[in-house]
Amino acid sequence: QKEVEQDPGPLSVPEGAIVSLNCTYSNSAFQYFMWYRQYSRKGPELLMYTYSSGNKEDGRFTAQVDKSSKYISLFIRDSQPSDSATYLCAMRGAAGNNRKLIWGLGTSLAVNP
Amino acid sequence: DTGVSQDPRHKITKRGQNVTFRCDPISEHNRLYWYRQTLGQGPEFLTYFQNEAQLEKSRLLSDRFSAERPKGSFSTLEIQRTEQGDSAMYLCASSLGVDGVNTEAFFGQGTRLTVV
Questions:
Q1: % chain A with pLDDT above 70
Q2: Does residue A95 carry a pLDDT above 70?
Q3: Taking CB atoms and an 8 Å cutoff, what residues of chain B touch A99?
Q4: What is the pLDDT confidence band of residue A96, given thresholds at 50, 70 and 90?
Q5: If 0-12 CB within 10 Å is exposed, 13-18 middle and 19+ buried, where does residue A7 land?
Q6: Residue A2's CB: how many other CB atoms inside 10 A?
């Protein structure tokens, strides 16, 4: 079993839809959870960064972490064609343990005008 | 531009040749990472520096691969005797690690290597 599981999609939604992306993980030591957005042929761009459980909101983006279920989500409200990209979840343990980010495969999202 | 900078953006090389990539991290960041990414996959960790010290290397980093960060600022990744399987996007990231706390990593645009 991979440490981080993420459905690669592709996911196709109409403009304005609410998008739900998620990852599951198996390592209970993970405490820092990130979502990166990657456009084609570009490097990953940090979108959301969350420590431990809870919600974090930034504009149209909301990140949720449920450590009890080992499940994280990214919601995109009022999706736009410019949101079309691959969304990667990444996570790691606390400082002093695992400094390496463990990545999901990425979910490919297409928002259609 | 104060982000992570990588050079070159694209590199096409013949099998068997050596290539070298450069990464300039965000200036105050003391940690620097190299990753490799192939199509449809997430980034795979290759190696990690704290200042000039290379603290960890992945098993993926064969003896044909070497990375340096001589002055704790920019870093180079060299691949010797390239093989077609080395074709990938090579990503550099940097972060600030202070007093045992590591901030989030910021990535460069990557160097896309094609071995023909």
A1: 95
A2: no
A3: 31, 48, 56, 97, 102
A4: low
A5: middle
A6: 12
